Amino acid sequence: MQIIRTAAEMQEISAHWQPTIKVGFIPTMGYLHAGHLSLISRAKEECDVVIVSIFVNPAQFGANEDLGNYPRDLDRDLSLMGPLNVDYVFFPTGEMMYPAGYKTWIEVKGISDILCGASRPGHFIGVATVVLKLVNIVRPTLMYMGEKDYQQVAVLETMLRDLNVPTTIVRCPIVREEDGLAMSSRNKYLDSDQRVQALCLANAIRLAQKQFLAGNHDPQSLIELMSDLIIGENGSIDYIRFVDPIDLADVQSIKSDTRIILAVYIGKTRLIDNSAVLA
Ligand code: PAF
Questions:
Q1: C-alpha dihedral over 230, 233, 236, 237, to 10 degrees?
Q2: To which CATH superfamily is domain 2-172 assigned?
Q3: Nearest-atom index, ligand 1, CA of 29
Q4: Which CATH fold topology does 187-273 show?
Q5: Interacting residues of 198 by C-beta distance below 8 A, sequence separation 6+
Q6: Residue 221 CB: number of other CB atoms within 10 A?
């Protein structure tokens, strides 16, 4: 496993990828968990070379968000990746990614402005910009991304398509703790009571899935039932929506491929989750 600390060095390596080799890339903000490791393992099975980037991207955090506290531990990340035989870890600095005078931002209109984008203005501009930069530096064939960040994947697929970038996203299923909580680096912020309360996201999804199977296809009534469950666990709802799986627009009547998608605050920690209605 080689650690690459500069974009120039990474580009020098990626410039020599032959068109016949499959290059797999997993962009991360570090503090890796089993979800990230599952993306890396899949990339190792399917690709000839695997690169993981670790970069806590300041551009995707709002002024009142957790950039300063975001968990960082490179030694821990490297030891978790050790057994997986990652080929390169790209670990750039903020100054390197956004040097003085930096001026270019990528905006994927529409799909970036709803759901998490409505609550976190500018967030997806930061995500799209850093991911396009990383893709330009790494030049991957395949980019492995978890569906926990469902909207992020949709935004980035749109960007890659619109800008003719020859990288394909491999969507990978959400990895959950045994009790159903979706894995996230932000779960680290939860104290033991909040860790129990956080189950309300997965439980609310399950409730909606059961109701759908019992014949309730009305988004509004399911949102009310899910809200009651979440509020009963002291969760504070940012949004709960039933959306089209491709353009993420609200649906009027729920079908089996409709996506349930939600964001909930447990204390100060904002958690997200989603699932197809018929999983
Ligand atoms: O999902 C994440 O960890 C980040 O949004 C990403 C894709 C690494 C961009 O900073």
A1: -10
A2: HUPs (3.40.50.620)
A3: 3
A4: Pantoate--beta-alanine Ligase; Chain: A,domain 2 (3.30.1300)
A5: 181, 187, 190, 235, 266, 269, 271
A6: 12
Local structure of 122: helix, strand or coil: coil
Using alpha carbons, select from 176, 143, 171 the residue that is nearest to residue 52. Answer: 143
The per-residue pLDDT of the chain, averaged, comes to: 97
CA gap 108, 212 in Å, rounded: 32
Structural contact between residues 105 and 159, judged by C-beta atoms closer than 8 angstroms: no
Q: How confident is the model at residue 243 (pLDDT cuts 50, 70, 90)?
A: very high
For CATH 3.40.50.620, the residue range(s) in the chain are 2-172
Mean pLDDT confidence for 186-199: 97
Handedness of CA 154, 159, 162, 167 (dihedral sign): negative
Q: Which two tokens stand for residue 44?
A: 């190792």
pTM: 0.97
Q: List, edge to edge, every strand of the sheet that includes 2-4.
A: 2-4, 88-90, 49-54, 23-28, 142-146, 168-172
> Which atom of ligand 1 is found nearest the CA of 146?
1
- CA pair distance 265, 200, nearest whole angstrom: 11
Per-residue confidence (pLDDT) for residue 279, from 0 to 100: 85
Active-site hit among 33, 36, 123, 217: 36
What is the DSSP secondary structure assignment for residue 81, as one 8-state letter?
H
Residue with tokens 């969760």, as numbered in its chain: 235
Q: Tell how far the Cα of 14 is from the centroid of ligand 1, in angstroms.
A: 20
Question: Are the beta carbons of 222 and 211 closer than 8 angstroms?
Answer: yes
Contact yes or no for 182/202 (Cβ under 8 A): yes
19, 109, 220 from 116: Cα distances, Å? 36, 14, 19
Cα-to-centroid distance, 49 and ligand 1 (Å):
20
